[in-house]
Amino acid sequence: MKKTAAHAADAEWNIAVPPDLDEDSRLFLASRGAKEVSFPLLVRKAASLVILSSLTREVKEEVRRSGLSQEELDGFIADGIAWARSPVAAARGSAA
Length: 96
Description:
Elements: H1 19-31, H2 39-66, H3 70-84, H4 87-95
């Protein structure tokens, strides 16, 4: 996805969390030698994981309802991978 000038910098969030989540997060980060600046990365990873999990669940449900066979699904996946590795996809990626 291409970033516009308006979205080039990180957005500032001010979030409130329950005290137990704050403490658990600090303990988790400290146990891995992380510094306080690791909070934004932790939030980004958590948000990405929630979004990816939700989209994955939705796609799996759509595929299940579509009636595609495993063979058809494997073919679509193979086609997508082949396209992503193609010069056309690489050219589009460098233009983004």
